[in-house]
């Protein structure tokens, strides 16, 4: 078929309004035609063999399939090329936006990380002014705390001052009455008891210690008041009071470590209720004339003037028997009204003498023995041990009753023991407390100097002058210690030397 026939067929198909279709026969006619229209320019009618080793413009055609392999699908793919390119362009734009967002996020994260690192660095490495201010604050706080301990004597309250004055005057007046008017000493004792007991009840009730007011020592003071003012003619009541006063109540000064600390109202009252009853009975039995006793205290007069073997002449066994009666009344009442009826409050933490002794003697053999018993038997075991202890302290009571000098020596020993306990409190407690505060300050200063912040802290002028005396020598304390910590501490100046020295000097002067 020639080219004219092919052209006429295409024209007739177009005029007929139908889309031309490529039939296999037509494709074979087209491929077999020798028309130059379907051949590459400058080539003969026959198709040349393409070679990959040639580098002519004909290489551009190698990306397309050969014409003998061209199908309808290839043509349709060429028609949708623009859409594919558009989708490719949109995909590229989307990827470009994602990359931009990732870059912005990376820049923001790096900036935030850099800011955090810089902030942390600034926080850990403060400026010189900040280091100096922090150094000043720490030093000032430590010096103020030490100064407060140093000036504790000047910072006592008005109540403590009054207590100190009253304690000293009490010793002076009591000694004067013992030497000049012993027969009136019981009045002095009664007046003080009427003054101290309301104060003790108010203070103990305020701090939750009011269960201690039911202890035996307060009961003994009540017996003294009954024997002196209510029943002075009762010999059995007096003997019971005397045994419990010179026995359990007096020995409690050593057991409870009552101390003569004048500035503490609590310690003064505790010592008073233990030492004043035996002193009062000593004055009545040994320092009061028989005429006054016969008129005012007939029970004491009958006992002192009784013959051995008479019913009024009490021995050790009879004294223990009659002292057991009020003791059992107190013990049963205490167990019923405190241990049983207040068990829930005691379990909640309200202290009593039993709980205090159980904790204090928990490591001793007697404490381990009581605590090894069942819970229901611990209280009865404690009461039995306490009663045996009371009987043990009553054994020398006949000596205190019939011998004036033995009774005086015993009371003097109790008084010296209370003074020793007070001296121990003042020297050991106050002195060690102040020493601990000083050592704590030294450790804080040494730790501060050994830390990186302390090493970078600026050194103010006059540092050496603060560590040495005006004559250029070190202080005796520094020379005696000579340790590394003390050497570091001596290098630190007082930031407000004028104010601190004034405070300390003022406290010393006071």
From TrEMBL:
Q: Where are the transmembrane segments?
A: 162-179, 209-231, 237-256, 314-337, 408-427
Mind listing the UniProt keywords for this protein, alphabetically? Answer: Acyltransferase, Lipid biosynthesis, Lipid metabolism, Membrane, Phospholipid biosynthesis, Phospholipid metabolism, Transferase, Transmembrane, Transmembrane helix
Classify the main location: membrane
Q: Is the Transmembrane helix keyword given for this protein?
A: yes
According to its UniProt entry, the protein's GO biological process terms are: phosphatidylcholine biosynthetic process
Key word Transport present: no
Lineage, top-rank taxon, reads Eukaryota
Q: Where does the record say this protein resides?
A: Membrane
Q: Where is the composition biased (Basic and acidic residues)?
A: 1-21
Membrane protein topology class: Multi-pass membrane protein
Taken from the UniProt entry, a GO cellular component term is: membrane
Question: Where are the stretches annotated Disordered?
Answer: 1-51, 92-113, 465-494
> Which segments does the entry list as coiled coil?
none
The cross-references to Pfam families, in alphabetical order and at most eight, read: DUF2838
Gene Ontology MF terms in the entry: acyltransferase activity
Q: Which family does it belong to?
A: Belongs to the GPC1 family.
What is this protein called in UniProt? Glycerophosphocholine acyltransferase 1
The species this protein belongs to is: Aspergillus mulundensis
